[in-house]
Amino acid sequence: MTNDSHDRRLRIGVLGCGPICQSAHFDAIRKSRNAELYAICDVAVDLLERMNVVHRPAKTYADFADMLADKEVDAVLIGVADQYHVPLAIDAIRAGKHVLIEKPLGTTIEECEGLRDALAGTKLVLQVGHNRRFDPGYTFAREFIDTEIGELMAIKAWYCDSTVRYTMTDNLQPIIETSDQIRRPPGNPKADRRRYYMLGHGSHLVDTARFIGGEIEAVRATLVEKFGAYCWFVTLDYANGAVGHLDLTIAVRGDFSEGFNVYGEAGSVRAEMPLTWYHKSSVVECYSAKQGVIRKPLGEDGHTYRRQIEGFADVIRNDSPMHGANIDDGIAGMRTMAAIARSVETGEKVRLADVTGGV
User: Fold this and answer.
1) What is the pLDDT of residue 7?
2) Angle, helix 203-213 to helix 136-147, in steps of 10 degrees
3) How far apart are the C-alpha atoms of 220 and 354, rounded to whole Å?
4) CA-CA distance, 189 to 4, in Å (whole number)?
5) Signed CA dihedral, 15, 17, 20, 26: sign only
6) Sign of dihedral through CA atoms 151, 321, 202, 356?
7) In whole angstroms, how far apart are CA 183 and each of 54, 90, 163, 187?
8) Contact at 8 Å (CB) between 26 and 1?
9) What's the CA gap between 243 and 156, in Å, rounded?
């Protein structure tokens, strides 16, 4: 970064013109108070040209190495297929760029730990794109848990996708542009539905469970597959002695539902988040046993994708605390998902410290 970095917006180069960047990241960066959509990169030149017309970055690149060589690029946002996350993030780190990487961090524990090794010793910021951490209701609940609820007893969290969710997202999102030139991972990652759903949806749920309840030591999981639907029930052992329960269901015959309950010594919390694409804050009720009242914050700004960009930029430009998920959070999430997969296979409780591989 140049010497005037604190006096201007963070210049971000986005790698990828696929659905998540079109529906979330381009808009989020353009609307942010402290970041600039400086560059866009994609090997699909026709798609890149269309995104250039819509979003008007200062630069476009068809080669990631060329974007990394641009000294005006302060940071890169990696919004491509999961299988490419780690190797491309390592390239960015070696080029001296800060990195915001879409969730999940990677696809195996070992490659994620390799990314941590590449990051070690640098002063670069790496943030994983768990946007729920920037939901105003979730952050209010986290502060209440940290300061008022006392000892935790139990945490329940759920992420129930819906058979009607795509009808809703199609109405809310822009029309997604596609291209025959898109670079895809070998094979078909979506063919293994267990793995695909856990990485895509389970990563959100696992991070919420850690963000709200703390470090997870062990899991025991059950998976039921019926009529094309998948349901994971997972029991968690938290390091703080609390017990947890996760419900990941893809997809319920009903409305989309995401949230959590927390039961503690001096209070309780209930939170429900609407479908992300409404950009509305979660509805949260925090009960204080000491005061005998329920606090229900009004989160007027629920654009979590924009808020995570602003948080990322604040860490880099102003040395602000990291409120997003860092490299260790990303690895812990990967370990948790891998442990869930091993537990489903064996029917046994699995300690996160003992697990290897991926989902």
Assistant:
1) 67
2) 30
3) 14
4) 43
5) positive
6) negative
7) 21, 19, 28, 12
8) no
9) 9
Q: How far is CA 206 from the centre of its chain?
A: 10
The residue with tokens 């690149």 is 61
> Cα separation of 247 and 204, whole Å?
12
Pick from 222, 175, 185: nearest CA to 81: 185
Q: In angstroms, rounded to a whole number, what is the distance separating the alpha carbons of residues 291 and 159?
A: 31
Look at the pTM and tell me if it is higher than 0.90. Answer: yes
Q: Cβ of 308: how many Cβ atoms within 10 Å?
A: 27
Confidence band (pLDDT; 50, 70, 90) for 317?
A: very high
Residue whose tokens read 């822009």: 174
- The DSSP 8-state label assigned to residue 357 in this structure reads S
Q: What are phi and psi of 355, to 5 degrees?
A: -90, 150
Q: How far is it, in rounded angstroms, from Cα 316 to Cα 1?
A: 10
Residue 353 DSSP symbol? G
Tell me how far apart the alpha carbons of residues 327 and 108 are, in angstroms, rounded to a whole number.
Answer: 14
